[in-house]
Amino acid sequence: MAQKQALLAVHQALEKSFKAIEKQQSLWDSTLLECTHLLSSSSNLAEQLRACNKVDLKTTPFREFPDLKHRLKYKLTQAMEINLEKLEEKMNVLQRVRDTTGNQVATCFQMYELHADTIGLTSVLERSSLYPSVADMLEWLQDIERFYQSQYLGRKTLLQNINCDNLQNIQALPQSWNRVSEQMDQDLIQDTLLKVAFFLESRQGS
Predict the structure, then answer these.
(1) 69 and 131 in contact (C-beta within 8 Å)?
(2) Could you say which of 88, 101, 113, 146 is the most buried, measured as most Cβ atoms within 10 Å of its Cβ?
């Protein structure tokens, strides 16, 4: 009876963790999509600003407006700064996803460690065609935690080295951002949630 209750407690903790990750992943995906739009916009603004810096309006019909170039550069720079500020706000959201997931995973492992001796190694490793083992699910949680940690830090480091004085780097931001994504399997979390889908479904009402 004690083993059954201990296993139930760990299953409940796993269920809570994966359901929390479902919500966090939805927030992560929507935030990354918003970042993509901001990165594309910033890249276009940087391209326009670089072109503006190169052009000599004195040789064009616009020479009659001596402050035009200054005003245009100011407008483009302001728009780019606003975008970079918004990106920082989005990074705060990604950080919350990382932290929330990390805390949830830590709580789940604490529950497992509390009951590990009672459950026993055999039960922890036991799996079926429908149910992953406890060991599998704990390992997947660690993989997800590492994913968020690595992806957040990669993107954070990238943006920390960006400022309006380096237009070339801003123009290349979308490509640099994609390279961070390519460092890890972006389907990892969704694939993992599919692996535990039946487990979560069977837990409903438990």
Answers:
(1) no
(2) 101
